[in-house]
Amino acid sequence: MLSVLAYEFHGLLYILTACMLILIVKPRAMVTVKQRGLLFIAIFVLLSVCYMSMEEIDPLVFALYLIPILTALSSMFEGWPASTVAWIAFLVCGYWIAGTEPVATVVGATVILLLGLLFHFKWLRTSELSQLMYKALLFIAIYEAVYIGIYYQRGYEVPLSMLAVILAGTFLSTALVFFTFYQVRNHERMREELYNAEKYHMIGQLAASISHEIRNPLTTTRGFLQMMGKPNINQEALERYRMHAIDGIEHANSIITDYLNYAKPSIEDARPIDVKAEINALIPWVSPLSVMSSIEINIVHEQEQCFYILGEPKKFQQCLLNLMKNAIEAMPGGGVLTITTRVDQSNVYIQIADTGIGMNKLQLKRIGMPFFTTKEKGTGLGLMVVVSLVKVMGGQIVFSSKTGKGTICEIRYVLHS
Ligand code: ADP
Ligand code: MG
């Protein structure tokens, strides 16, 4: 009696291992429905081979425990390819290895396969856990009745107490296995839904922020156009309003261009950029900001000679400006901003280091994600644009940071020779 329980327990461990394996492998593989079936088969075959080669199998436990649980599981959840393979495998292994009663096995396994497939195609999508468990237990009860009926009919006998132990184990394990598998699947589906929800949320936020920023210049433009319609307006004022209106529209236009830079970053007229000269030219732009919070700016060009990268100067400037602004904003109480350039045989390295507030691990992970900002007036779009522009110019960007110590950002571009 104890040995029967031990067999069942071993079987249960194998089945649960399969569930866990599927849980671990499936999300990584990002598979389609068809591949999922194949994955199920692969895991199933692997574990069956282990089971068959390592465990001694009692034919009755094989027939009354493993076959119904696994056939029901594969057919109800995974549909016909996986469950047909399982069905064939069970008939073959049952007959040649485990030594189950062939007629009872064929009839029983076919019945449960068909019931499981019926469930899969008709009810799986709409079933709650309780309905699923109820159907699974019902199908297995039908299987057991069919199998035992034929088994007795063909003149075999089983001690009733042993039968009771096996069946009790089967029903308990069915409940446990189906519960586990249902949770596994639900977990997976929830992750997917969450991912989608986040994506849509982001799109919504992006749209909202774009419209907000564009509405401001459009509103001013409208104001000026309205003023142009007033009577008794002199020529000079009219011209001024017209210029303001055009400015507003240009501003709106440039906002759209900036966002498109992110949405579809492309380098239109790539030409060699003199890295050192470009960086030196940027300093007058950032020094007013740095003076306000008494920040010292150091520029270190490790090489004397000029070197070039290929790209669009305006976008290159935009990247560096964003990074320098972030560095300055990270040092509200003053500090040192160091920009270092370095070049080797094939790469150009630009390092922007500050001695500011730094970031913790979590923040470091999230930078570059849209709308991630820790600033009251931040947009959380700066680094997102930087990352996409660096990428489109064939570069790479890495950040390292320590809370309270500062941040180092290094960009690597391919040297243009
Ligand atoms: P924003 O500057 O509008 O907040 P960014 O995309 O430029 O948006 O930056 C996102 C966030 O990354 C910042 O809010 C800040 O928390 C963090 N960050 C970026 N650069 C630095 C830096 N040099 N030091 C500390 N934190 C930084
Ligand atoms: Mg910024």
Automatic annotation (TrEMBL):
Catalysis performed (reactions): ATP + protein L-histidine = ADP + protein N-phospho-L-histidine
CDD domains per the UniProt record, alphabetical: HisKA
Enzyme class, broadest EC rank: transferase
InterPro entries linked to this entry: HATPase_C_sf, HATPase_dom, His_kinase_dom, HisK_dim/P_dom, HisK_dim/P_sf, Sig_transdc_His_kin-like_C
Keyword RNA-binding found: no
Lineage, highest ranks first: Bacteria, Bacillati, Bacillota, Bacilli, Bacillales
Domain Histidine kinase as annotated: residue spans: 209-417
Membrane-crossing residue ranges in chain numbering: 6-25, 37-54, 60-77, 82-98, 104-121, 133-152, 158-182
Protein's name in the database: histidine kinase
Domain of life: Bacteria
Molecular function, one GO term: phosphorelay sensor kinase activity
Pfam families: HATPase_c (PF02518), HisKA (PF00512)
This enzyme's EC code(s): 2.7.13.3
